[in-house]
Amino acid sequence: MGKGGERISSMASEQEKDEGVVMASDFFWSYTDEPHASRRKQILSQYPQIKQLFGPDPWAFPKIGVVVILQLWTATLLHDSGWLKMLAIAYFFGSFLNHNLFLAIHELSHNLAFSTPVYNRWLGIFANLPIGVPMSVTFQKYHLEHHRFQGVDGIDMDIPSQAEAHIVRNVITKSIWVLLQLFFYAFRPLFLKPKPPGYWEFLNFFVQLSLDAAMVYFWGWKSFAYLIMSTFVGGGMHPMAGHFISEHYVFNPEQETYSYYGPLNLLTWHVGYHNEHHDFPRIPGRKLHKVKEIAPEYYESLDSYKSWSQVIYMYIMDRTVGPFSRMKRKVKKSE
Q1: What one-character-per-residue DSSP string does 89-123 give?
Q2: Which of 59, 111, 218, 220 shows its CA 20 to 30 Å from the CA of 193?
Q3: Where are the domains of the chain?
Q4: Count of alpha carbons within 13 angstroms of residue 141, beta-carbon side
Q5: What is the SS3 assignment for 273?
């Protein structure tokens, strides 16, 4: 960290000390298994009819198709627009479309569009096109580990690194971190736990770069820039990006996963139903609300949110909350 960063951290520490507020200097450590497997077992024993919700969503393909075509068409319309106009449209329109596609890829990582996994993988590569950067295949590799090993030290790459947690310690650095959180989210696993790319990742890379090259060749750099802007402004200081924080950042030490029950679920494949999703990852997003309706006693007692924008504000302004505000657990060694 440079001298400027040291000064900011020092000033923040002094201010926190003066106010009697101390930010956590380590993660929350759990010595029990993640809560979702046991809750799933309990719920299914009481409400076996929930299994009827399992299976792919037949509307996934047409919904993804409409968003992909709309976003690529918008990019071609902006090929000679001014940069300020492009940025405004990217933030207030394109960001919602690209974030929708990012969460469609999340849905597809669980094979929730088709029963045949390879079809989901192809659709993920297609959904990736307006995002501008190849990520759908790699995302699936790491995301499934997040479900199987939630919070496990060194495996779950959804958790910030030690470096992030030690640097991001005050309102200013947290604001910068939120603004750039998509970069951290994308590059963290590549630095901490790199996986050798396989055939499907090279295919994802080739298809994506072919689309990017075609966009530049036929419509120019501005059309391609609009897609990139839509991706990264939508992943930063943006209402939809609040789910990155709301899902697992600990505001209540007794709880490590949080749901959001607000209107943006309609645009985000209902990823806000995050406790329900981790309990039942084989249920498509549009049916997750039925889990809460069938088994309300398991969810109504849990803390939840109604605004992702409020979550971002709380994360930045609460001096006790930061990247360390995550639950971690050690790998159990076999005897």
Answers
A1: HIIIIIHHHHHHHHHHHHHHHTT-S-SSHHHHHHH
A2: 111
A3: 21-328
A4: 15
A5: coil
